[in-house]
């Protein structure tokens, strides 16, 4: 046996946190115990009474095991998962005009013909047994502008098709939340639309300046709509997205997040994401965004589910849904895209929906190249200890790199929280969970 | 190898369950990027003419 290359040891007070990035097992030891454990890891042997524990949780692995290859296998399995992830833009129009939005508010709505082609596509995929389920997601523009004529009928069709064929079905939406009302909520139930991503841009003052309908404020209305939604459908999950700049992340999040009653928070997560125009490269050894850490801590203390930090993840093996082979992003005009974080210009069109219910991919070679191996299967990621937590570049970042539009695909160049802080926070979260159930 | 015993505190912590998938789940349908950057490593490649507005 040998020591895993993905072990971390992080000093925390008078103890040392031991963490394996593949299994996410974490615990702390005293300095004296640490010396003994390091000694064992340098020369693992079965005499040590906790040998099985260290093997089970990946701190030691067989001499013949290549841990990178193990991650590759898991990546392949995740990328070729046969649940079809379909993102649809009913329109690119929006009732807001946020300064940072990369979309151009292009006029147009999905036609009946395009809707029929989507129905044909789904029917064929099911009939030909190519998919094991459907993850439907609505995006835009503001998708609820076309709720009754696009989102509802297409969702109902897809749900019934999947149910009839005993295939899984989930339905979710990224919306600004402005148009959610009682009538719509009733309709959400019948199409199983239970997962929402809704954005607040900081406090009322900053939010209303950014997200308004021709000047009319939206902060109070959106909060009220979320509360009604959560109270009406208990299984609804809301990811509260907070897009931040340096100024917005410094707001008082206790005051903002307390607007939601405790029972409403239970099925809500808060996801802080930096507005892309304000990204800066940081010194990865020193980078520590204290305001972000404070905001995360506040959300956590108030009972929200909070990603510890978007730069790291545990237990996932592909970076983004776009990495997956069974994925398509269909625009209102029937054009097919991949990345949801680029505009909808000609440059990013990957294919089109045809009248016989097929997706005609324009560049089969690129499509093959981008899926034939993991995006982290490169020299840099191969020797990076952070790999299990980072999973390397996403589809679009890697494609940009291959097209020589960027010279660095490493996601870690922009991280705002150090890996040591991430591990400490993760340890504290795991410990808190444990004490809650065993305290 | 040095002989050593693990304390009760350490043995208890070794029982703690990991939180797999409790961080970012890229497979979650609503985990959408925004503006070319989402913590999932996308990075903008297009220059923007937009500037950050002053909020106050």
Largest interface: A-B, 98 and 48 residues
Quick one: overall form of chain B?
elongated
Unreliable spans of chain A are none
How confident overall, as mean pLDDT of chain A? 91
Round the Cα radius of gyration of chain B to an integer and report it.
Answer: 22 Å
Rg of chain A, Cα atoms, Å:
23 Å
What's the number of extended β-strand segments of chain A? 15
Major sheet attributes of chain B: none
What sort of overall outline of chain A do the alpha carbons produce when their principal axes are compared?
globular
Distance between the termini of chain A: 35 Å
> Roughly what is the average pLDDT of chain B, rounded to an integer?
57
Supply the number of helical segments of chain A: 17
Low-confidence stretches of chain B: 22-56
Helix content of chain B: 10-25%
Strand content of chain B: under 5%
Spatial order of the strands in the main sheet of chain A?
Answer: 11-10-9-8-7-6-12-13-14-15
Biggest sheet layout of chain A: 10 strands, mixed
Total count of helical runs of at least 4 residues of chain B: 1
Structural class of chain A: alpha/beta
Quaternary organisation of the protein chains: heterodimer
Helix content estimate of chain A: 25-40%
Condensed summary:
With about 450 residues, chain A is an alpha/beta fold. Chain A has helices at about 30-40, 50-55, 65-80, 110-125, 145-165, 180-190, 205-210, 220-230, 245-250, 255, 260-265, 290-300, 365-370, 380, 385-390, 395-400, 420-439, and strands spanning about 1-5, 5-10, 15-20, 25-30, 60, 85-90, 135-140, 170-175, 195-200, 235-245, 270-275, 325-330, 335, 350-355, 360. In chain A, strand 2 (about 5-10) and strand 3 (about 15-20) form a beta hairpin.
Explain how this protein is built.
The complex is a heterodimer of chains A (439) and B (56). Helix content of chain A is 38%, strand content 18%. Chain A contains 17 helices and 15 strands. In chain A, helix 4 (112-127) links the parallel strand 6 and strand 7 (133-138). Chain A starts with a strand and ends with a helix. By secondary structure, chain B is mostly loops. Chain B has one helix at 8-13. The longest helix of chain B is centred in the first third of the chain and has 6 residues, at 8-13. The model of chain B is unreliable at 22-56 (pLDDT under 50). Classes of the chains: A alpha/beta (439), B little secondary structure (56). At the A-B interface, strand 4, helix 1, strand 7, strand 8 and strand 9 of A face loops of B.
